[in-house]
Design goal:
This protein has about 70 residues and is mostly helical. The protein has 4 helices and no strands.
Length: about 70
């Protein structure tokens, strides 16, 4: 293999990794985990926590990002 082919192969692999780093599911998971941390370390009420998590999920559904990634 030439250096050019190896470079192209690594560039393609890097693009794939960057694309998958910040998926909609990861973003939603991070939001939910942060909300759970807030609940554990604050005086937040359980009802407020549940409402916020439902809002995060609904926001993700409405964004349309999950629909396009389901078949991938």
């Amino acid at each position: 293999m030439s250096n050019n082919n190896i470079r192209e192969m690594f560039e393609e692999a890097n693009k794939l990794v960057e694309k998958e780093l910040e998926t909609p599911l990861r973003q939603l998971t991070r939001k939910i985990l942060n909300e759970e941390r807030k609940y554990l370390y604050s005086d937040q009420k359980p009802a407020q926590r549940k409402k916020n998590i439902k809002d995060f999920i609904e926001e993700a559904r409405k964004s349309g990002n999950f629909k396009s990634n389901l078949g991938a």
